[in-house]
Amino acid sequence: MTSIDDKIGLSVQPTRTPSFRRQRALVPVLLFLGMLVAVISSLGAPLIPTIAAVDHVSMSSAQWSLTVTMLVGAVATPVMGRLGDGPHRRKAILTGLAVVLVGSVLAALPLGFAWLLAGRALQGAGIGLMPLAMATVRDAVPPERARPALATLSLTSAAGVGLGYPVTGLLARYFGLHSGFWFAAIAAAATLAATTVVLPPSPKRPAHRLDLLGAVLLGLGLAGLLFAITQAERWGWTSARLLALAAVSVLLLVWWAAHELRTPHPLVDVRLVRHRAVLAADLTAVLSGVGLYLLMSLVTRFVQTPAGAGYGFGASVVVAGLVLVPFSAASMVAGRLVRLLARTIPLARLLPLGCLISLVGMVLFVLARSSLWQVFVTTGITGLGVGFIFSVMPALIVGAVPAQETGSAISFNQVVKYIGYSIGSALSAVVLQAHTTAGRTLPTDDGYGTAGVLGCAVWVVTALVAYLLLRPHPPGTRTVASAGTQQADTGPVPPQGGMTPHPTRGDR
Fold it and tell me: Least buried of 15, 136, 227, 502, by fewest C-beta within 10 Å?
């Protein structure tokens, strides 16, 4: 019997063992790093109305303080994964943390919206640190300690949101907008110092040339497409410049995909989508990302809207952060439920089940948002569904591809998930802006209803994709594609949480 741990290399003893004290401190420091990444990646969501008011920009413009971080994260994840493949991993992690620190300071300084946006973009580089942190745990920590450490690390993306939102909201409430970013800067500096001390040397593996052209094409294509979406209401959906920008962006992404297929060491191995389960997981990742960040952006703006607008609760930024705590708690509970349900229900059916649970949450937002407790229930239900989805996706990928392709397949899944986050964040701004009458700063309540219906449609499509593309296998059984054949292989599902530990491309 071959377990998932064996497939991802956890049974292999590390080639370099740091001192005992450093090794014991390594896991807590990397867990703190993961929490930092989770906090800064979505730091802007509850602060969007405050950013718009303080920097005198529209809500749709302020929304870019969240969108740009996700956009940079989508590009940074494969780039940093490639840079950290072998002999440059330590340097890549420390450099990434330094970039996050600089970005946090830029966002914290009262230099205006443009500098805040630049700082948020630099903070997005931190999103690419998670795969490197997991690879470090796998290589430098004994297997008996690595397994629980990786499982805990995979949950920090959800726990960080629940911790970061209310903390930063509390700081912004009593010490001003920029105090939340100063908090991120202090945390980044502490993490950088601790990581410098405990991080082991990079593994001795061959380095490959970085696919710079692939990174540029991916970044330009995604940025152009997102900018076209956000400008659609202002320019007009049928305007020549909008259609031209969208067409050029799509062509750049097509060029990127063709380039990745030709280059010997691609930034992202797009060939892996030939596996049916991988294709289903990737499509589910991007669509669920859209649905998730569409709702998160709507909820945090809705609860802060003054009651005088005819809706909303006039809640503080602290309450806006607390509204998302049920999401984090439910997503962590979902990870444990998946492990229990997978014993009797095929993973292929748990994925659409998670989509349907999230659909219920979105429907509740559309039909029942007149009381604050209803919004809390909405985020909790959505968190349960998203927790199912993010727990099942890595397991499906691991069971569909050969062991040597696992890292590439999951890295690509992370990329498309952050693309979905970016699109969802941008779409929320577009829909609400379309329902904001001239001379007013707040959208009508119908705007939230329309955006919610759009979110329901996204979740319906996501559930259909997951249901139609996946073929259920007996519980606890994985189909491993290898050398053109398929064989049954039993073993436990990967650890609960949003991500599965995986090797970087250099481990293949």
Answer: 15
pLDDT score for 497: 36
Nearest partner of 215 among 256, 263, 249, judged by Cα: 256
| Cα–Cα dist 230/60, whole Å | 7
Which residue in 139, 107, 85 sits closest to 41, CA to CA?
Answer: 107
CA distance 69 to 35: 16
- Helices and strands per DSSP (H, E), number in the chain: 19, 2
Look up residue 126 and give its DSSP letter.
G
pLDDT tens-digit map of 312-345: 898 887 788 788 889 888 988 887 888 788 888 8
Taking residues 461-477, what's their average pLDDT? Answer: 79
pLDDT tens per residue, range 336-386: 888 788 888 888 889 999 999 999 999 999 999 999 999 999 999 999 999
Q: Are 351 and 391 contacting, i.e. CB atoms less than 8 angstroms apart?
A: no
Rounded Cα–Cα distance for residues 211 and 84 (Å): 13
> Which pTM value belongs to this model?
0.75
What are the start-end ranges of the E strands in 412-499?
477-482, 485-490
- Supply the Cα-derived Rg of the chain in whole angstroms: 22
Q: Is the pLDDT of residue 475 over 70?
A: no
CATH number of 4-11+19-201+267-502, picked from 3.40.30.10, 1.20.1250.20, 1.25.40.10, 1.10.10.10: 1.20.1250.20
Take residue 124 and report the two structure tokens written for it: 């997005």
